[in-house]
Write a structure and sequence with these properties.
The protein has no helices and seven strands.
């Protein structure tokens, strides 16, 4: 049966900024490696734009916490309400150029 590649959770901090916790499922982890994690946005033409570089997911534990999430464009914290309930934002975990996991932000 299929196994989910992982999960993520967005939390609103007391100052309104966003925090993300990423967890990669056991079958998708790789010891002694890291996976790049990003929040991307699709523009009106369908192009993929990096909205935030979240850091590196530990391949042994499969986890990453980014607190707060920082915008790649402005270098400022991203508000929770700027992500949740918006369209076209998604989280990607990359193993080099390959997508290890992907999930939409709703």
């Amino acid at each position: 049966s299929p196994v989910d590649a992982g999960s993520f959770r967005l939390d609103q901090l007391s100052n309104g900024n966003a925090k993300i916790t990423i967890f990669i499922s056991q079958p998708f982890r790789q010891s002694n490696t890291t996976f790049e994690a990003v929040i991307n946005k699709e523009d009106a033409s369908g192009n993929e734009l990096v909205f935030s570089n979240l850091g590196l997911v530990n391949g042994n534990t499969g986890s990453l916490i980014t607190n707060p999430i920082i915008s790649s464009g402005s270098n400022l914290p991203i508000k929770y309400t700027d992500l949740v309930g918006q369209n076209n934002y998604y989280v990607k975990v990359l193993n080099g150029a390959n997508v290890q996991a992907r999930g939409d932000i709703n």
